[in-house]
Amino acid sequence: MTTNLMMNYWNGEWHRPAGSDLLDVLNPATQEVLGEVPLSRADAVAQAAEAAQAALPGWRRMPPNDRAQYLYHMKRLLEEHRDELARLISMECGKTLDESRGEILRAIENVEVASGIPTLLQGKISEDIAPGIDEIMLRHPVGVCAIIAPFNFPGMIPFWFLPYALACGNPVIVKPSERVPLTMQRVVQIMEDLKLPKGVLNLVNGSKDAVDGILDHPAIRAVSFVGSTPVAKYIYSRAAANGKRAQCQGGAKNPVVILPDADMESATRIIADSAFGCAGQRCLAVSTAITVGEAERPFTESITDAALQRTVGYGLDEGVQMGPVITPASKTRIEGLVAKALADGAEMVVDGRGAAIPGFEKGNFIRPTLFSGLPMESEVASTEIFGPVLSLLQVESVEQAIELVNSGRYGNQASLFTSSGSAARKFRYEADAGNIGINIGVAAPIAYFPFSGWKESFFGDLHGQGTDAVDFFTQKKVVIERWPKEWSRKF
Ligand code: NAD
């Protein structure tokens, strides 16, 4: 029997799951059981939502400057516990310790930006929109907010939303991925030190039933989701049907274009990090590399070397550059897509399937994999693989490359490697993606920029992070005021 049972948290107290099914949480490198997570149902969500709703009046009345004090404290706590949280992330998610540390840093950056809430929350005023009449725009909290997170950044993604929602005066319910619940469990334990008013920060573990409970509960007014496109679409439409505000980030298939004038050595290093870092399980991982003209031969040679040289192993071991993928099912799915690409006409360049890592034979490891020449008609060409697999394509001009970039269903990220300013500007202008990288492999926006995403990579209007988050987590109230007659006389 495992003793590490995930609990739910609402009204400032931990609650043992009652009557929920339990799921094992497994270390993807070893299959060791790290804990058990309850698959909570709508009744648990309802209790969290009621606690959050009860906390709303007090929390929204607290001056923003006082709410910011909690965020300063939150930043200190995340910094103090950064290594501990990074180890947890590596254990349950598989990534390397450096990757996990970087993830917590990104979470901290969002807390820092949200700490500017006294300024971010300011409204506006126009005097004398008519004689003696003034108009004011104020921002009020939207109400109880829910965050539904994916498995691949258990420590960072909730923080694209959480600090802003709180700073704007909203109580929050976090629903982590059931595959990686340990990190947020520990985060909420650590955050108890903040002594937030009861009901302001809540945690409900679970999967689809808990999500449906969130989507249907009338007290929950806004939903922030990150995950795969089919689920993003489902959540966006059901939330909207229930009158909620929703921002839903979906899947991706990110192209990178390499021009012959690129610095091949650094381009290869950066693209290899993008494609194979976090075992390719990043929504901004490059998955298709399009070489233009003479870039083909040098890039293919150097990326092949980079793929072969990458050290694969347990994320907590020294010197490891790439960990396992999340589940055995994920490994099977990824290897199946590679097989299908070959069956559809692609040529294998580096085959990373069937990887056996000494000491970690049960792990879900796939080594970096490269194939080339996948016909665009193949279903694999438009399917998100979400593993350490890079497809190599060749075209003859920047125009053809941009056409290929824009032919995809997704629009999360597109990157270009070049030393030409005019090619860079053309690409920035014409590529249909929400996040553009010029000589950047993972174009992850810093916290004071919106984390964008277009096409099937995003459903909604306002993105996570920065001022978009403040707009999302507030509703605008416009007040028009007329005062005594002598102030309103006509001149
Ligand atoms: P997922 O869609 O399987 O799960 C995400 C969340 O939705 C989890 O909390 C899960 O419990 C819940 N969920 C799963 N199935 C559901 C259903 N049928 N109904 C209701 N809720 C459901 O995604 P994942 O596998 O955890 O994460 C990987 C995906 O997330 C990839 O597609 C990746 O591209 C995407 N992602 C996107 C971004 C971005 O910024 N666009 C960032 C990170 C990850």
Description:
This protein has 15 helices and 22 strands. The chain is α/β, with parallel strands linked by helices and 491 residues long. α3 runs antiparallel to α7 and α10 crosses α11 (296-309). Bound molecules: nicotinamide-adenine-dinucleotide. Residues 148-152, 175, 177-178, 207-208, 211, 226-228, 231, 234, 249-252, 283, 384, 386, 412, 453, 457 line the site of nicotinamide-adenine-dinucleotide.
Task: Give the SSE layout.
Blueprint: E1 8-10, E2 13-15, E3 21-26, E4 33-39, H1 42-61, H2 64-80, H3 82-93, H4 97-114, H5 117-120, E5 124-130, E6 133-141, E7 144-148, H6 162-167, E8 172-175, H7 182-191, E9 201-203, H8 208-216, E10 220-226, H9 229-241, E11 245-249, E12 254-258, H10 264-276, E13 286-292, H11 296-309, H12 328-343, E14 347-350, E15 369-372, E16 389-395, H13 398-406, E17 410-411, E18 413-417, H14 421-430, E19 435-438, E20 454-455, E21 458-459, H15 466-472, E22 474-482
Parallel strand pairs: 7-8, 7-10, 8-9, 10-11, 12-13, 12-18, 13-16, 15-16, 18-19
Antiparallel strand pairs: 1-2, 3-4, 5-6, 6-22, 11-21, 14-15, 17-20
Helix pairs in contact: 1-8, 2-4, 3-4, 3-7, 10-11
Bound molecules: nicotinamide-adenine-dinucleotide.
The site of nicotinamide-adenine-dinucleotide (NAD) has 26 residues, from helix 8 and helix 9.
